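Case study 2.
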Amino acid sequence: MVYALTATTLIVLLIGVLLWQEIKDSKLQLLVMLLIASLIADISSLVTIHYFKSNIISYNLFTLVETPLVLFLIGSWISPSKFSNLIHYLSAAFFLFWLFENIFITGFYSAFADYSVLLGGIIVLFVNIIYLYKLSLESYTPVVHLPQFWISASFLIYYSVSTILLTTMGITQSAGPQITNMMSNFHIIVHILTTLLLLKAFRCLPKPSTSLQ
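Prediction:
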């Protein structure tokens, strides 16, 4: 399942690179950076699990990178505004909490920064819901024709599932390894599907403008 996720991320990333001009015109460069970070995290996770039997370092580092990239991406669509300023403050708060957890609670090398993941997921959901609401009120075209809508929908589904699974992890683990593995595979499937949903966003990208010579 992890190999399928890595392959999916790579395919979507390559398509994004091929559509770079359209992505740049739509202020979606940070989405490509997010896909690159996700691909690096997937590959490094596979490598560290194979050689060190643990992917804690890869997981914790990606947690630090992922949430700010998602927040800055959404903020770039509405900048400058008070809402984008709030997003920057929330990103800074997340960064400080990540440092606190990894230094004083879990230890960077010894345990997963699950509290940071949970906080990041809640922040992204909060920002995402507000953005989608504002988009539905202010857009002059149907939101389903906007790439930002599909990207936000992808984030909304992924972080909702991740947050639910993380908050119920104790119950899942007490049910035994079989249930735990099933939930882990379910999370990967959701991750694959939400990554593929970005292809719909790419289809909604405006065509690059061409000037007549």
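The chain has a mean pLDDT of 88.
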